[in-house]
């Protein structure tokens, strides 16, 4: 489940997150509907073969917007995985999943709802992308990785120097 990377402070501990995930799965895995209300949250979901995709918002969120995010994520993954959206293919391409999520939402703000644009931006994620064409998330990740590299080299210098 990718959710631990995208939790806010609603469920601060791993134990609470796991209990919430189990509760969602138990409520949704045997139904054909696409929306559920659970613990004061709006949950939209979709299943495909051996995977379940969830987008969760507050009870005040528009269900159509949440469904738009879910459809964008699923359609983006479908294109990236050449319509082979199943557990094994997704596990082999987890980086693509994380990049797609980063292109679609950031901190609860919907950035993109067009799967074609998401796939295009995920494909562009490389060192040769001009700064003006990078998303805020890309710039932040680049600066974070640069700072981490500096920190690691300083740590090695201190440890071995």
Automatic annotation (TrEMBL):
Domain AP complex mu/sigma subunit span(s) in chain numbering: 6-126
GO terms classed as biological process: intra-Golgi vesicle-mediated transport; intracellular protein transport; retrograde vesicle-mediated transport, Golgi to endoplasmic reticulum
Keywords of the record: Cytoplasm, Cytoplasmic vesicle, ER-Golgi transport, Golgi apparatus, Membrane, Protein transport, Transport
InterPro entries in the cross-refs: AP_mu_sigma_su, Clathrin_sm-chain_CS, Coatomer_zeta, Longin-like_dom_sf
GO cellular component terms, A-Z: COPI vesicle coat; Golgi membrane
Localization (cell): Cytoplasm; Golgi apparatus membrane; Cytoplasmic vesicle, COPI-coated vesicle membrane
Membrane topology according to the record: Peripheral membrane protein
Recorded superkingdom: Eukaryota
Family under the similarity heading: Belongs to the adaptor complexes small subunit family.
Self-association and partners: Oligomeric complex that consists of at least the alpha, beta, beta', gamma, delta, epsilon and zeta subunits.
Function summary: The coatomer is a cytosolic protein complex that binds to dilysine motifs and reversibly associates with Golgi non-clathrin-coated vesicles, which further mediate biosynthetic protein transport from the ER, via the Golgi up to the trans Golgi network. Coatomer complex is required for budding from Golgi membranes, and is essential for the retrograde Golgi-to-ER transport of dilysine-tagged proteins. The zeta subunit may be involved in regulating the coat assembly and, hence, the rate of biosynthetic protein transport due to its association-dissociation properties with the coatomer complex.
Protein's UniProt name: Coatomer subunit zeta
